[in-house]
Amino acid sequence: MSEPALELRDIHKGYNHGTPKEVQVLRGVSLRVAQGEVVSMVAPSGAGKSTLLHIAGLLDSADEGRVILGGEDMTDLGDRRRTRARRDHVGFIYQFHHLLPEFTAEENIILPQLAAGTSQAEAARRARNLLEIVGVGHRADHRPSALSGGEQQRVAFCRALANEPRVLLADEPTGNLDPGTSETVFGALMDLVRETGLSALIATHNLELAARMDRSLRLTEGRFA
Question: Which fold has domain 6-217?
């Protein structure tokens, strides 16, 4: 059996929020996401889903527990190695696209590749291919202000996958879109994930979308129910 793409072991995390009493956000969360598996995480506000995604993506550290990507334990890496591992192995998608407004759709996807050492020609080829997969190849030369909300989010999906990560982490990726656009954009995301063979952990409030993934988990009171 191959190593899981992502494994979390007994993750605990608490915050003080400016008071002497610590609030426990995560209380022993464990998770395995197989190679090529797409897992949904359904959670009410305040349940800890964003904290869990940040820990899984090496943006935050757990108080206890282990984070393993592709069979490699990332828990105790120093800042520089964590940054490199995050860049090389993890793709992030947020509710809002955060595209750079002064660059075109294609350039927004090229830039992170150049930062990772990819050649200009290969970065441009990969950007165009990703945009075609999600149906906005014809908008490659447009800046974000000229794109619809759904198109902007699809470009953000492509940017997250540009460096060919092992794992995609998404926090309410269609949460700021109307229902019709959300359906279209979610379909584009799934096409992209399946086309690239990625593993993904996707947080969503939308139970219909969650049910279309390979497996669905519910996070409540800091644990998977």
Answer: Rossmann fold (3.40.50)
- CB neighbours of residue 106 within 10 Å: 21
Strand 215-220 and strand 223-224: the pairing is antiparallel
CB 162 within 8 A of CB 87: no
Strands (E), the chain: 6-15, 23-33, 38-42, 64-69, 72-73, 90-93, 167-171, 199-203, 215-220, 223-224
Task: Give how far Cα 44 sits from Cα of 49, 174, 222, Å.
Answer: 8, 16, 11
Cβ atoms of 90 and 166 closer than 8 Å: yes
Residue ranges per domain, the chain?
Answer: 6-217
Nearest to 95 by CA among 10, 191, 206, 16: 206
Retrieve residue 193's tokens. Answer: 């994930």
DSSP 125: H
CA angle 171, 75, 11 (to 5 degrees): 60
Report pTM: 0.85
pLDDT tens-digit readout, 42-93: 987 777 888 999 999 998 999 999 999 888 899 988 888 888 888 888 888 8
